[in-house]
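Internal tracking record. Fields below are filled automatically when a chain is submitted to the structure queue. Please do not edit lines marked as system-generated. If the sequence contains nonstandard residues, flag them in the REMARKS field before resubmitting.
Queue: standard
Priority: normal
Entity type: single polypeptide chain
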Amino acid sequence: MTKICNKCGKAKPCTAAYFPRLKGCKDGLRPVCKECMKIYHAQHYKNCYKERHQKLSKINYLKNKKQIIERRDQWRKDNPEKYKSGYLEQSRNYYKNNKDKILEWGREYSKNNPLLGRVRTAKRRAKKRDSLEHYTVMQINEMLLKQGHRCNICDAKFDVVGYHIDHIIPISRKGVDTIDNIQLLCPYCNLSKGNKTMSEFAEYLKEIS
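SYSTEM-GENERATED OUTPUT FOLLOWS
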């Protein structure tokens, strides 16, 4: 025995496997098949609830960011095979199919958020060195206020010359990425300091003065 779906017009077996149950109907089944109902609900969600759900999800993520990241990282450690075969493969395929779009988005985002771009670059480099600690955007903003938006060496104003994030003990000399090893310098001082320590840089300044 078959039943014709009122939505798609296809004849399908008249059973609960193909049509949702509904007591008010003569045969106890809805006139629209499950496949069409699924499409309808997906479209209804997109039109009515998707934006609201995204906003609530974002609020929940920001409110519980630390716990969410910890749970995610723990799941990846506990399920390495699932992570590799699922998420990583999906990410690689998405990047492969949308490479130009992703790169363009990244360039635009870095342009509009230069400080965040610097911190992310430092974080990525720290991971390559197996360093678990690194400074954050908030810490850099706090340091800007602490230094009065001036170079920590020559006292130049950052709003005139800009600034660089400098490692007091250079990374090449086993310095770390924590905020305790960070200072903000004008471009001239940072490029002149290079991979010198502060004491070495002070001697260098005496020599050239």
